[in-house]
Write a sequence for this structure.
């Protein structure tokens, strides 16, 4: 047997989310038996796993949170809520499936297969889903060994946000741009991107939605921070684009006019710097905005005052990592480990237990998707 | 001297377009002296040059054609028209410059420099602007020698439309797609694309705007022709996408919802064929729509029911040719010459003189941008 420690079967607890054919979402905790690890696997006791925007879609779907009903037991609580009929069509792919949730997390290796004994007792970070659980069986190769002085909380968010921020910079370079624009820039992700750009000397135009967020990023040394709700936003954005030369943007908002406004301001900034001859097709400089989120679910609207050299499209971390290949991905991961407590530090609003994830008053907090608030789950809290 | 024929200076006539600071456009014919060709140049007597949609923007700008005033002389007529104030901002780059017009054309070489004597008397096609003129001095290397049995009219449109249609197919292949969608598909360009796809066995979904255009393309052997104004358009489009597997589209319309509708139908078609597991990010198959025209000048509107693997952007022939490099460009050009009278045959509504280009009743005809109507200028007609 590969097991090098305990021999009795572990009992775990796992969070599941299910959309039912009759138009409800059910989120519950269930007991599960934790299998023994195979030779190349470990069992991790998860102590920190964040609620990212990318987790919320699977966790709560498009539920109407005004309709929450509670159920289950004190140990294994459950909730359910109605899904608006118009939103059910998009749920077809997950109907009546009890799905585990939680993209990433960190914890301590408590069992290890024969080939992974060196990890026993070590703190590791993981990505791969099903992290909202007390234990996770995972291949040793899919664990990132954290430095000795790093806690699970330090490493809980070391994949999605850090690799997304580094992926943006990498995409910028690979596609021939030299500076970039970011929206919802006061987020944990935005703060990381700001630290990366300051450290690497890359021009970054931060777009936020209120004066507090402007102050926050200015306090962190950001040179260009613009409030999209201020009346002179378009002019200020164009100035910042002239100064930085940014011709690529990453937009978390997704819907409405912002992506198009960024492209228009890029074209105006290029025209302001240009000395070439007239072309009725606009500038020949390619302008790109990638939508990596959907905080605003309205249609994307793009004015055609941007010439012909432009693109808008979706951007996701995992397809990006596949595109660049394992060597580049490893380089990015190594940087995250090396700068875990500085460039890639995350800050959390609250640490909650698995049972608290299902409390309506807690749901009201983490479901707001407000920039700058982020919750950390400790599935072994209060156990 | 490089001149191998006449020694007296040629007097030419050239069409010019100018936007004035006081908000008018002036289009006129002027007399010009035609310089002697350098050693590597030829002088071409232009006998056929088309009015493409890509020429109209430079020729008439955003003029209000209800305000046309005529002027000049019988030999050298001129017109002017008002430009709506809102459209003047976009004219900044061409203000008060007298610009020659006409992207492509064909004619007979009447003078040749020492290194280009082999072209004397031959019929050639050209691209490079300033074709709305009686004569054009051009580098021999920029001429495409036409087959002996080809007239200037046969070769007049052998760059823009043929290379655009071939460029779409080339882009489809280079970006990993196997079939494509085309809008405004009854145009000369659309008919060429249909012939290419039939010949090469490529799936093509043609989108047109009325029943006559459906009948026209069906009569030319097109398998999938959809009328975007019919009530079951979305369902029929999805069916055609399931059948062809098309995941890239080229859209001449540009504004409004059509590009987004195509992406939505692609995503629905992929979902209908898929057997994989649920992802809240939608399919992982990249869906792309390129806008290569702007028949509709409203903003582009894209619903977010298309997953995250998608892109929308501008597409232009010349940047495409630069991207693929001279060898690919030459391969495409060779195919055009070889299939000039079959795959790449163009059809014209009327042949007009340079003076007729400035007649209000003729302008009313060629400025309509109606699919299937195309005018050919013969600058040496009636001379």
């Amino acid at each position: 047997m590969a097991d090098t420690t305990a021999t009795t079967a572990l009992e775990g607890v796992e969070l599941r989310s299910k959309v039912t054919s009759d138009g409800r979402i059910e989120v519950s905790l269930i007991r599960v038996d934790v299998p023994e690890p195979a030779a190349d696997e470990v069992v991790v006791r998860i102590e920190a796993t964040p609620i990212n925007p990318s987790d919320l879609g699977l966790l709560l779907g498009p539920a109407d949170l005004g309709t929450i009903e509670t159920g289950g037991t004190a140990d294994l609580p459950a909730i359910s809520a109605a899904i608006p009929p118009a939103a059910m069509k998009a749920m077809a792919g997950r109907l009546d499936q009890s799905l585990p949730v939680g993209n990433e997390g960190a914890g301590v290796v408590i069992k290890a297969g024969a080939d992974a004994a060196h990890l026993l007792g070590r703190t590791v970070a993981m990505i791969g889903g099903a992290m909202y659980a007390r234990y996770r069986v995972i291949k040793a190769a899919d664990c990132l060994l954290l430095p000795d002085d790093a806690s699970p909380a330090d490493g809980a968010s070391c994949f999605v946000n850090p690799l997304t921020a580094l992926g943006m910079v990498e995409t910028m370079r690979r596609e021939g741009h030299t500076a970039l624009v970011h929206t919802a820039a006061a987020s944990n992700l935005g703060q990381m991107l700001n630290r990366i750009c300051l450290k690497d000397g890359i021009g970054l135009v931060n777009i936020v939605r209120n004066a507090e967020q402007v102050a926050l990023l200015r306090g962190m040394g950001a040179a260009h921070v613009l409030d999209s709700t201020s009346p002179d936003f378009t002019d200020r954005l164009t100035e910042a684009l002239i100064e930085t030369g940014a011709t690529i943007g990453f937009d978390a908002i997704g819907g409405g006019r912002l992506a198009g406004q960024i492209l228009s301001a890029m074209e105006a900034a290029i025209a302001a710097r240009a000395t070439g001859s007239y072309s009725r097709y606009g500038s020949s400089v390619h302008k790109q905005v990638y939508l990596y989120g959907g905080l605003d679910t309205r249609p994307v609207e793009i004015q055609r005052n941007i010439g012909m050299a432009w693109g808008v499209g979706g951007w996701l971390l995992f397809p990006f990592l596949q595109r660049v290949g394992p060597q580049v991905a490893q380089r990015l991961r190594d940087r995250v480990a090396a700068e875990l407590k500085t460039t890639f530090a995350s800050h959390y609003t609250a640490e909650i237990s698995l049972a608290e994830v299902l409390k309506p008053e807690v749901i009201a907090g983490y479901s707001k998707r407000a920039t700058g608030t982020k919750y950390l789950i400790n599935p072994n809290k209060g156990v």
User: Anything to note?
Assistant: Residues 258-273 of chain A form the longest helix (16 residues). The first strand of chain A starts at residue 10 and ends at 20.
